[in-house]
Write the structure tokens for this entry.
Amino acid sequence: MDLFASDLHLSSATPDLNAAFLHLLEGRARDARRLFLLGDIFEVWVGDEDADMPEHRPIIAALRALSDAGTDVHVLPGNRDFLLGAGFTAATGATLHGDWLRCDVAGQQALLMHGDTLCTDDLPYQQFRRMVRHADWQAAFLARPLAERHAIAADLRQRSQQAVAGKAEQLMDANGEAIAAVLRHYACTLLIHGHTHRPAHHTLEVDAVACDRWVIADWRDRACWLEADDHDLRAFTTADNGCIVSDPRHF
Ligand code: MN
């Protein structure tokens, strides 16, 4: 079984979700052959020194324990935690990938992404993304003292929230042409991503080939994830009583 989660946005402000993630890592994920975390695990990550933050330490330890127990942990960077680096992979045993990962999922050739690169209509965001993903910008940022990095990140986050509030909903969704283009380019029939916080299972045709697109739910108020066996994908969440239930938003 493969397990997929995205957009947990964990921080010191989300103790319940942090505990839910630990519960998932120590429980259900132990049965998984592979765990794919598709970005924005952490609300803020300004460098691998952040692994030492009190709210992060138990999570890092639980990822390490899961890796050691035999589950392959794969991480793709999100738009909040794109500075995850070698210190994070050394501490957790996870494999850190670039902006996309192509692999076999549920018997299909699948493309895994965070999803922000698909939001091509949001030009100011894409411009910002090019800046912060540039090696020179990252080297200069990481050379700053940790406290200064956190201050800059808080400022950027506030500005981003203001910008999001002024943007049309449609502008921040994945662009249909961008979706078709990546499926075509990577010769995949299954696309799994998060980022948009619009959980769904879409079906589409690309060059007359039937394709699926699964958008993973964010962890606004509860844990949500996908599981894949050799043939199918299914979405799960936790009910108020803590029971694992299928997530109706993906039908
Ligand atoms: Mn995101």
